[in-house]
Amino acid sequence: MRGEIDVYGVFIPSLLAWAIIGFALSIFLRRALERFGVYKYVWHRPLFDISLVVVLIGAVVMIANRLLA
Questions:
Q1: Which of 12, 52, 57, 59 is the most buried (most CB within 10 A)?
Q2: How is the chain split into domains, by residue range?
Q3: For residues 15 and 61, is the Cβ–Cβ distance under 8 A?
């Protein structure tokens, strides 16, 4: 994995970029889960949401490593 990503001359940490992508994906996924009524089966919604973000960031990093390596 690369350490930094160059965005028009500004270097940003790659983990920050992957975290932003993962968080954006989680927003859409949370809306879909709420629409389909999945949250009524979840015991602790904030804990579920933060774990969802962590899993999505991990998935984004794994996919990025395979594509950029």
A1: 57
A2: 4-68
A3: yes
Predicted confidence at residue 2, as pLDDT, reads 67
Residue 1: CB atoms within 10 A of its CB come to 10
State how far the alpha carbon of 59 is from the alpha carbons of 8, 11, 33, 43, 45, in Å. 26, 23, 18, 24, 21
The alpha carbon of 61 is separated from its chain's Cα centroid by a whole number of angstroms, namely 9
pLDDT in tens, 4-42: 888 898 999 989 999 999 999 999 999 999 999 999 999
CA–CA distance, 4 with 33 (Å, rounded to integer): 33
